[in-house]
Amino acid sequence: PLHPPAKFMWVKGLDNAPITIHFNLQNKNWKIATQLKPGNDATTFTAPGLQYFMDSPVKISDLSFTEWTVTNPDKKSYRFRIAFDGKDPNNKLDEFGKKVARMVKQAQAVFGETPAYDYGEYTFLASINPYVFGDGMEHRNSTMITTGNDFTGEDNQLGVFSHEFFHSWNVERIRPKTIEPFNFEKSNTCDALWLAEGFTQYYGVLLLVRAGFTTPEKYLNTVGGLVNTKTNTLGAQLYSPIENSQRAVFVDAGVAVDKTNYQNMFTSYYTYGAALALALDLELRAKYKLTLDDFMRALWKKYGKTEIAYTVPGLEETLAQVTNDKKYAADFFTKYIYGHDAIDYTPLLANAGIELNRSFAGKAWLGNIALDTNKNNQLFIASNTIKNTPAYNTGLDIDDILISIDGKNVTQKKEWDDVIAQHKINDVIEVVYKHRNETKKTSITLKESPFVKAAVKANATESENAFRNAWLGEK
């Protein structure tokens, strides 16, 4: 793959100059896939200017293709392609393409139509082989997908396709003003990644449920995770989604020189935003007989089709228009977007016949601490301990070497976990550890983990089941 920002020179002052590029293929089996406009021959392409060119990755190899057509309500049709780089020994690509097409249909149903893709097509640039790292990056009329394993065509390889495809509406066309235009000289600080990435994260999984690639029961694992994100992570407890979005330039693929304390001050805007999307979707359904789809469709009509970049106040205004309730929209944004109020998910999920239970009910818990063994066969804490957990409250911190727990010397994580598993909630245990080469002893009172899991109620009513089916069923 060729990524233009990393491969090509940028001449300042020529940002709006048209660009023509010709590829001289060295292998007769190589093919080219890109969203750039085809030129006069199969190896020549053009772009209207720098921004478009830099947003257009190119894949050149012995590619395989599968394609299909999607028609919008206005009767205009668009070609969809998977440009596949990998081995397909069982000839699964066409079958996999049909699965992606089902997911595409569910995404189209959210907005009522696909975008009017430039040059009439959308391309999944898919490298699925053991020689790449897993990632995905959206572009205007394509997405680059890399999955670092062999291609099987199984449903579990669809997730990144679903997420990145949803971006062809949300981000590529429904765009926050704070990333307009993309700045190649310094980072754009964006205040709306909670919607741009977070709501996309929510739909990326939900579409696979609606398309039948995962069951509603399995989806409840995702629901429980999102509830925990908002309820049990400090970034979401103490900071707004706007603040977490603005920290992206420091945490998203960035490497800090000094050790950071992000576990206690940052929650990913992907999962934070998805947790807000979950709450808003359930509340709209219960209170207004509307859905999050209605909100996204309104954003599409107002900002996406017109390609007018939105502001956070504009999002609030759109929610007020969709619900016909300015007070509700103002309260939601004040509490959960500009603020970081807690969300009570229990009554919201109860409408769908879903209950929340403690994930580790009745079990002793010291805190979710990352443990590892160093080259001297010493057990140590590999990342910051989390505020308000038993471990944090008694002073344990990153890089502390753990010598013994409850009188038992430990050098492996399993030994540590086994001791805790033998205890009950409110038991007091003694830990001997070394902090900055000083040996210390502390007593820790074990608690119950606050993390929860979601499950369908055994006595769910007919109306609750209908609510859940309307939320998770095929559109």
Outline the structure in words.
36% of the residues lie in helices and 20% in strands. It has 18 helices and 20 strands. The strands form six sheets. Strands 13, 14, 15, 16, 17 and 18 form a six-stranded antiparallel sheet that branches. Helix 6 packs across helix 11 and helix 7 crosses helix 11. It is globular. The chain starts with a helix and ends with a helix.
What's the quick description here?
The chain has 18 helices and 20 strands. By secondary structure, it is an alpha+beta fold.
Give the termini distance in whole angstroms: 35 Å
Tally of extended strands? 20
Rounded mean pLDDT is 95
Q: What's the helix count?
A: 18
Radius of gyration: 25 Å
Indicate the topology:
Layout: H1 4-7, E1 19-22, E2 31-34, E3 37-38, E4 44-47, H2 50-54, E5 58-61, E6 64-71, E7 77-85, H3 93-111, E8 121-128, E9 135-138, E10 142-147, H4 159-166, H5 193-196, H6 198-210, H7 216-232, H8 234-238, H9 241-246, H10 248-251, H11 269-288, H12 292-304, H13 312-323, H14 326-337, H15 345-350, E11 354-358, E12 364-365, E13 371-373, E14 379-381, H16 390-393, E15 401-405, E16 408-409, H17 413-421, E17 428-435, E18 438-445, E19 447-448, E20 452-456, H18 462-472
Parallel strand pairs: 7-8, 8-10
Antiparallel strand pairs: 1-4, 2-5, 3-4, 6-7, 9-10, 11-20, 12-19, 13-14, 14-15, 15-16, 15-17, 17-18
Helix pairs in contact: 3-4, 4-6, 6-11, 7-11, 12-13, 13-14
